[in-house]
Amino acid sequence: MTLIEAEGVAVRYDTSDGWVGGGLDLDVSVGEVVLLLGPSGCGKSTLALTLNGLVPHSVPAELRGTVRVAGRDTAHHPPGRLCDVVGMVFQDPDAQIVCETLLDEVCFGLENLLTPRAEIEPRAMAVLAEVGLADTLELALRDPTRLSGGERQKLALACALAPRPSVLVLDEPTANLDPRSTRDFYHLLGRVAERGTSVILIEHDLDDAVVVADRVVVLDAEGNVRLTGTPAEVLAGRADELDALGVYGPTAVQAARRLGLYGDTPRDAPLTLEGLASVLRDEAVTDLSWGPVDEQDAQSSPTEIMATTLVEVDDLTVRLGDADVLRGVSLSVARGAYLAVIGLNGAGKSTLAGCLAGVLRPPPGRVRIDGADISRFSARELSDRVGYVFQNPEHQFVTGSVAEELAHGLFVRGLPGAEVTARVARMLERFDLARYKDVNPFMLSHGEKRRLSVATALICGPELLVLDEPTFGQDRARAGELLTLLDALHTAGTTVIIVTHDLQLVAEHATHVAVLAAGGLLAHAPVERVLRDDALLERAGLLPPPVRRLATALAPGRPRWETVFRLTDLSPRLP
Amino acid sequence: MTGQSLATGHASQTAPDEGAAGRPGQRPPLRINPLAKIAIVLPPMVALLFVRDVFTPLVFTALAVTAAVAVTRPRPLRFLIGGVVAAVVFTWAVLVFALTTAPQISAGTQVVLELGPLTVHAGALESGAATVLRVTGLIALTVLGGAGSSGTELAGALVNQLKIPYRYVYPALVALRFVPRLRRDIAIVNAAHRVRGVRERRGPFGALTRASHMLIPLMAGTIRHAERISLAMDARGFGAHPTREDRVPTRFTWLDALVMTLGMVAVAGLFWLSAALGHLELVGTVYPSK
């Protein structure tokens, strides 16, 4: 039985002349879990908004084509008349909470829908218990703002489930979560889907999401359905087409392809790491000539050339309010290093990065760059030495055009106009921003804003670049673009410090890792030592990167796997 | 900071915070309608604007401080430090207001302090103290009037008792929650702009340009957040029907009426006491005069 019928859907927002989506058709059956993929800006989120009538009723936009959910035409049913059939969960956990307690939050929707008074609280309590947030009234009366991001997304799911919808629409629900919370969230969603609720899921990190999906639908950049089929058919069988669209498959498929296990079209490649591990354990397959790269073949670590110290942190303690955000952290960052700072939320990562870049004023004498005390630097001296890229690039824009934005730091330095013009022109070219030079920075796309923020941080020629969660909330293609840029800068000699949750990213790019837990430094060592130390990561509350988890599963009896943690560690062994 | 609870990776197991503990059980038997409390404090707040003596606002301030100490039970050291800080701030504020008091008000009264060119008359001191206490009295009444009411309850009371449409009340409640978020954003933008250095001239024009540059990212962020919240609310049926069910509707009971009447009588009594003791001074304007 068909639950959702979308026919010829295209949307034009009132703020724009162009149409999003090229007349898209999509049917979803009762109980089906559909994973919707596609490059940035292809209209996935717009489609999601049409499914419960937010487009065209709440968002000023024109809808072409028809969308029917459980027989109701969404063009004639506002969201309020659809939320008993469609529940929605958005990306940002902060932007979905409107009440003062978890219980009030879940009751909010039921109260809006005029649910009989006596039913509201029991239903809300049942849903809160189901998502594992509260099984007592005391827990249900907690303040939602005190929850972690992962818990808040579970709360958003509980709110969507309370009116007992037949279909859930989730738009990148884990994009702002750490890997462990993401895994928890998909376990929960899997249980919900098993009870027969249909799901339409937009997600870019597929490792956990793929387990719950029955069908994968891939849109192309124009918003047409390009591929549709079972997860195996699409994600493994059409992997090269996904590459061309800029959609990244699950880590297991990427790993299988690198190992050359299934040729160019890894049709039968497993989609999960567990699945891949069991294939690789299989006797018949172990005879094949593949395996991890030998240690000596692996990319030579540039550790040896880093002799001099650039940043020195000595017993740094930072108090904010009543709590020590950092406690006695000491580390020295070598010139030319690519350091990743990792740890759970609240471990002190951003505070440490802020102190290293002088964005937060560390106590005198605790942080030195090239031997000079960072707490004594003026803004000008600081930006000569350190470029800092904020998590939200918009926060650091101070002028009205891209070119002025780049020129700002140079003018502050009092450089002559001719030199400023020349350097700005070079930077515009290098970061592919020349055609936007007179555009207001706020009008750029997110990826372009990010490039501009990196360019402004670099234009004064600092030796050190610090980035606070630069890939947060972005899809893999956008993140990949930035990481390629950072690799190029690092190769050219810039010292890079990056705060991130994505340990596979750390594995592929960083040379060193600093692990923080509850404000203390657990370790600071070359990347291979940290990411191969499962016990250390466990102490920090972190999940090892996916490739490392695969290797750990295979290591017993296969010593070559013991050292593997990067995708680039995997390749077909040459005869 | 969510650090402490997350350190274990199981934040859900942390003890319930004080915010929730303040509302034990769903609706304890003795809950006063927020509107009753507001009705008690509103008349004296208006009256205080026209009061010019020291005694009357002092009574309300003392009442609020006593109530706050009784409820929060601070540790002795904290209480002492708080007291000293309050005394210093109070003295400083009184001096500032005394020095800015118009000379004709204090003319002819005794000189209590002479510091070089500065002369402070007793009349100026009294007028300064009255001004500062008037402000603290207003703050105290605001706090007393809001004590023990949650935002949800107030919203419920506005909808159920004052019959204000819920479609206006709840968004206002949500907008109040933007304040901490905005404060955090201001701190970040401020830091971001500080590290990038400033090109603007010093002085008021430079400061104005800087402020306008900060405003754009703040506005952009806040509008985007507001749009997201509004979509999330619509998606959960907000505004779908002309009315909305209230799972525990606020009521205005005989008890509320009784508390309100007693409170109003008590307030009137305090004003009467002040007048009977010969302290109460009322004027016809809100500006300082004598």
TrEMBL record, chain A:
Name the UniProt record assigns to this protein: ABC transporter ATP-binding protein
UniProt keyword ATP-binding present: yes
Originating organism: Nonomuraea diastatica
Species lineage: Bacteria, Bacillati, Actinomycetota, Actinomycetes, Streptosporangiales
Domain ABC transporter residue range list: 4-247, 311-543
A cellular component term, taken from the record's GO annotations: ATP-binding cassette (ABC) transporter complex
Family, per entry: Belongs to the ABC transporter superfamily.
Signal peptide: none
SMART domains, A to Z: AAA
Database matches in InterPro entries: AAA+_ATPase (IPR003593), ABC_transporter-like_ATP-bd (IPR003439), ABC_transporter-like_CS (IPR017871), ABC_transpr_CbiO/EcfA_su (IPR015856), ECF_ABC_transporter_ATP-bd (IPR050095), P-loop_NTPase (IPR027417)
Gene3D superfamilies: P-loop containing nucleotide triphosphate hydrolases
GO molecular function, one term: ATP binding
Keywords: ATP-binding, Nucleotide-binding, Transport
Automatic annotation (TrEMBL), chain B:
Main location: membrane
Keyword S-adenosyl-L-methionine: no
Signal peptide: none
Localisation: Membrane
Domain of life: Bacteria
Membrane protein topology class: Multi-pass membrane protein
A Pfam short name: CbiQ
Region of interest: Disordered: 1-26
Coiled-coil residues: none
InterPro entries for this protein: ABC/ECF_trnsptr_transmembrane (IPR003339), ECF_transporter_component (IPR051611)
Bias kind Polar residues: ranges: 1-15
GO cellular component: plasma membrane
Entry keyword set: Cell membrane, Membrane, Transmembrane, Transmembrane helix
Annotated transmembrane regions: 54-72, 79-99, 252-273
Name the UniProt record assigns to this protein: Energy-coupling factor transporter transmembrane protein EcfT
Organism annotation: Nonomuraea diastatica
